[in-house]
Write a structure and sequence with these properties.
The chain is an alpha/beta fold and 357 residues long. It has one domain: Spore Coat Polysaccharide Biosynthesis Protein SpsA, Chain A. It contains 14 helices and nine strands.
Length: 357
């Protein structure tokens, strides 16, 4: 890889202040895809639907996710992928759509602007988030042809066979997700989840990598519950993750950390153990030189048409940008603390409205 000038160091500020070790195995069994690994399959086993939601800022990183998915995933499946957006550059779309030339991949761009506009106007947004983060909430309603699907954020690198993740048995759970290391690595966020959401932070999942039981979402009136909760309370810290965790509580298959491993937590995994790396919050290898697991990001970035553009983002990142990141994280912690201090916080006001009482 071409060497670049050393940039500001990410590690050393806003580091994890809580020791964590996320679960190594799923709460229930192994993926069915792990069965009968021996032998050559001559026929396709079926279609795996995968959803992404992005804007122009993150679309170049989707190419890395796709490149790594195609290289490491089973050819026994076809992957039907949908990119949800509210306006994307045509030249970016053209580059991404060239992945349709690869075996087993089919990608479609879906503009959801008009369909979701009446809902998104009522949602609370912070600087770190855009409306696209909420798109995953509406997948079940927009795509009734699927009973089950994966949602993946675009700042991910897939190092395992994605069909193994899809083939976990959800049972009667609404979704499957790995514990959120961004929450569990910081005391203030653990207290926020406990006191504001009324949840056990050990079971608070990160919504950037989730296996969704779309059939159950539809049959059990998820959207009516979401609309009702939205009227009652505006979550301002973790936003759509708050809504998903609160509504789906007690109905979540807890997945292994290997399928949503972040650079945040001190719990490190080897290449052999890793299945998916998720560069959350400000732990971005396209900004800093010292991000854990950054080597996998650049390994696949070099293979994409966006490499020079992504490298340019890193070259242009400055000390002033780092200070802005610092301030953003401190502001988020302060916001979490202010929500904890509210006398009319969600759980204080409503208690346990969802899940098993």
């Amino acid at each position: 890889m071409e060497q670049t000038q050393m940039k500001p160091a990410r590690r050393g500020w806003n580091e994890a202040n809580v020791e964590i070790k996320t679960p190594a195995k799923a709460d229930r069994g192994a993926s069915k895809a792990l069965e009968n690994k021996q032998g050559v399959k001559k026929e396709k086993k079926g279609i795996i639907p995968i959803f992404f939601a992005t804007d122009n800022n993150y679309l170049p990183f989707l190419s890395i996710t796709l490149e790594s998915l195609w290289e490491n995933s089973s050819r026994e499946y076809d992957y039907e992928m949908y990119v949800l957006h509210s306006g994307i550059r045509e030249d970016y779309q053209e580059k991404i759509l060239r992945y349709n030339e690869k075996e087993g991949l089919h990608i479609s761009f879906v503009d959801v602007t008009e369909r979701l506009k009446p809902i998104l106007e009522h949602l609370h947004m912070r600087d770190y988030y855009t409306a696209t983060t909420y798109f995953r909430v509406f997948i079940a309603g927009m795509f009734p042809q699927y009973d089950k699907a994966l949602y993946l954020d675009c700042d991910t690198v897939i190092l395992g066979d994605i069909s193994e993740l899809y083939n976990y048995d959800l049972g009667n759970n609404l979704l499957g997700g790995a514990p959120c290391e961004g929450v569990n690595s910081f005391d203030v966020y653990k207290r926020y989840v406990t006191e504001v959401d009324g949840l056990n932070p050990d079971y608070f999942f990160n919504a950037g990598v989730i296996l969704m039981n779309l059939k159950a979402f539809r049959e059990e009136g998820f959207y009516e519950q979401f609309a009702d909760l939205l009227k009652k309370y505006k979550f301002s810290v973790i936003q759509d993750e708050d809504y998903l965790n609160v509504i789906c509580q007690d109905r979540v298959l807890r997945l292994p950390r290997a399928w949503n491993k972040t650079p945040v937590g001190p719990d490190k995994l080897s290449r052999e153990e890793l299945r998916l790396v998720h560069y959350i919050m400000t732990w971005k290898p396209w900004h800093y030189d010292d991000i854990p697991y950054q080597e996998y990001f650049w390994e696949y970035a070099e293979k994409t048409e966006f490499y020079e553009e992504i490298k340019g983002l890193k070259d242009a990142f400055t000390v002033a940008d780092m200070e802005k990141d610092k301030q953003g994280e401190e502001s988020l912690k302060a916001l979490a603390q202010s929500e904890i201090n509210r006398a009319d916080g969600y759980f204080k006001s409503y208690g346990k409205l969802f899940g098993r009482v």
